[in-house]
Design a protein that fits this description.
The chain is α+β, with helices and mostly antiparallel strands. Helix content is 70%, strand content 7%. It folds into 2 domains: 201 residues, no CATH class; 140 residues, Reverse transcriptase/Diguanylate cyclase domain (Alpha-Beta Plaits), CATH 3.30.70.270. Bound molecules: guanosine-5'-triphosphate. This is diguanylate cyclase.
């Protein structure tokens, strides 16, 4: 219950989690707003920075909040990402430098934190990202030059302990920020990997499945044959062909024919499941039961299948099939196994159909 409300509030503030870049960026903007506001208040109270810096920190806090608002509620994510980059590299870093002790202050931590954030989170704004990285990396150089030329522009700590407090607080804040960022990147990476695994499993299943009946296709037969052969298992194959199926199509239409095929498939799936084997659609109205059991057992299972099929009340008439069954021999290849079953199936057709031969 509590988690439900929390995630609703976070979604409202940050956007749906399905958009991980926006989600992270909006959270950084809001945290940034609070931090700059907090920094202004603390600096003012402890006298850690000049009045100018305090006002600048307040203004930055407001501007970052504005960037969040336009990005979150005015659909300007990309533009606002660039605006945020400009704000932190061109305004926040120089202000922090000037207002918090220059090269003796905590701006190196701040620039490093921002550099890592830009590198990890702004992949979709290519060129701007590179420019932002360059600014963060190079910012100390002109600032040191300016500090040397005009030391009066930089606010200097009045005591060593104020400097220590400022460095420590900034270090902790940037450290926490980096922890959150690395965690969010690794969560994102994990999610993407899970998604890719699920997708490749789905693709594999689809590539092995017949779309009309949901049965496996020939590809799966090859794979299973190799596996059982390598394991030295006993297995047999029944090749089933529906009798006079063309007539069904011709008289009752193709859609009806499809429904008949699906009913036959449902039956075969049950038989395959019961015997820990596979039901395969081999061609149009040709099916295979590929089961890890002996010839006689497959014969029995196929006869029961014919019986069950005859009991299904199709509207045109009952459906029958002809089948040939063969068991794998050690010296057999897959083709030989299939060929024997195929020959027997044709013999069953010649015998007048509705016949199973082994
Ligand atoms: N509805 C439907 N029909 C299909 C599908 N695939 C193949 N067929 C039909 O299955 C029929 C097979 O006909 P034939 O090979 O002449 O065999 P048959 O009429 O079953 O006769 P016998 O096998 O000799 O008993 C053809 O009419 C094909 O169009 C399919 O996916 N859906």
């Amino acid at each position: 219950m509590y988690r439900h409300y929390l995630s609703k509030v976070l979604e409202w503030l940050l956007v749906n989690k399905d958009k991980p870049f926006e989600y992270t960026h909006h959270s950084v903007l809001l945290v940034g707003t609070v931090l700059f506001f907090y920094a202004a208040v603390v600096n003012y109270h402890l006298g850690l920075a000049s009045t100018f810096t305090v006002i600048a920190l307040l203004a930055l806090s407001f501007l970052i909040f504005l960037v969040w608002y336009l990005s979150r509620w005015r659909n300007q994510f990309k533009l606002m990402s660039v605006a945020f980059l400009g704000l932190i590299t061109l305004v926040a870093i120089p202000i922090n430098w000037m207002g918090n002790g220059g090269s003796n202050g905590p701006t190196f931590f701040v620039a490093l934190g921002l550099l890592i954030y830009i590198s990890g989170s702004f992949k979709n704004i290519g060129l701007y990202r590179r420019v932002g990285q360059l600014f963060c990396l190079m910012a100390p150089i002109p600032l040191i030059m300016l500090e040397n030329a005009h030391p009066e522009l930089v606010f200097h700590y009045t005591t060593d302990s104020l400097k220590q407090i400022d460095l420590t607080i900034t270090f902790i804040i940037i450290g926490l920020f980096l922890i959150i960022m690395v965690e969010s990147l690794s969560t994102r990476f994990k999610l993407e990997r899970e998604k890719a695994t699920q997708l490749s499993e789905k693709l594999k299943t689809l590539s092995e499945q017949d779309s009309l009946t949901g049965l496996y296709n020939r590809r799966k037969l090859d794979e299973q044959y190799t596996s059982w052969k390598q394991q030295g298992r006993i297995f047999s194959l029944a090749l089933l062909d529906i009798d006079h199926f063309k007539n069904v199509n011709d008289q009752w239409g193709h859609n009806y024919g499809d429904k008949v095929l699906q009913s036959v498939a449902d039956l075969l799936i049950k038989v395959a499941k019961k015997n820990h084997g596979l039901a395969i659609r081999f061609g149009g109205e040709e099916f295979i039961l590929f089961l890890p059991i002996s010839l006689d057992e497959v014969y029995k299972a196929t006869t029961q299948t014919a019986q069950s099929l005859s009991e299904i009340p199709f509207k045109h008439a009952s459906v029958t099939f002809s089948a040939g069954i063969s068991q794998d021999k050690t010296e057999d290849s897959q083709d030989e196994l299939l060929k024997r079953a195929d020959n027997l199936m044709y013999q069953a057709k010649s015998n007048g159909r509705n016949c199973i031969l082994k």
